[in-house]
Amino acid sequence: MTTFLYARVSTSEQTLEHQLIQARQEGFEIEDCNVIADHGVSGVATRLCEREQGKRLFDLLRKGDTLVVRWLDRLGRNYDDVVGTIQAFMKKGVIIRTVINKFTFDGSTKDPMQKAVRDAHIGFMAAMAQAQAEGTKDAQKAGIALARASDPKAYRGRKPSFNRKQVEQVLAYASNGSMSDNEIAEAVGLQRLAVVRIKRDPANAERQLGRWGM
Fold it and tell me: pTM higher than 0.70 for the full model?
């Protein structure tokens, strides 16, 4: 039986080291080799089973193992995805534990009242994760709208993480169809999420470059 830590690192403030230290400070014994992390991945746009290390996590976990996460939002920010993921893990006999508040979700629970409480906690925390993500997105939209109204010419949005050459390379590799998103990202020096966004909407990528004169 092995204890794993899964971390999703989506911003500079959510470092892997911070999540690991916090888990160990709360008493979780986790070896460095059992730390699994995805970097630069959106919990809203990308399901756990679609992430590079998330896929690996599904393969690694065995009956009797424990999966530690800082909070359920590290697994995802979509209600159905988070609930489905936890249910799949519990069905495999994996115990899920959170660093914050030390919740434990164990599929071996037999008592109907305990199961009801467990499932209610899972549903509530998954709903909170999605609500927080949607609230953040709404706040960002409001801020953008205010900035545009105040000075339409000055507002350009966030500077693109890619340049024109990288966009051209992504689209060229994508048209070939022989490389995965992860392989393209490594080849052009971008995060996988940036590659996905460029492939999904090349015109928007061009607009972003144009606004910044890139």
Answer: no
pLDDT tier at 208, thresholds 50, 70, 90: confident
Helix (H, G, I), strand (E, B) or coil at 17: helix
Rounded Cα–Cα distance for residues 200 and 51 (Å): 17
Describe the crossing of helices 192-200 and 181-188 by its angle, rounded to 10 degrees.
Answer: 110
Phi, then psi, of 25 in degrees rounded to 5: -65, -25
d(CA 184, CA 116): 45
Give the side-chain half-sphere CA count within 13 A for 14.
18
d(C-alpha 123, C-alpha 117), whole Å: 10
Q: Are residues 100 and 169 in the same domain?
A: no
Residue 48: helix, strand or coil by DSSP? helix
pLDDT at 154: 57
Q: Please list the residues that pair with 37 across neighbouring strands.
A: 7
Residue 134 predicted with pLDDT over 80? yes
Q: Residue 200 sits in which domain range?
A: 164-211
pLDDT average, residue stretch 128-144: 78
What is the rounded radius of gyration, in angstroms, for the C-alpha atoms of the chain? 20
Position 130 pLDDT exceeds 80: yes
What is the DSSP secondary structure assignment for residue 102, as one 8-state letter? Answer: T
Please, what sign has the CA dihedral across residues 83, 89, 91, 94?
negative
Cβ atoms of 107 and 93 within 8 Å: the answer is yes
67, 113: one domain: yes
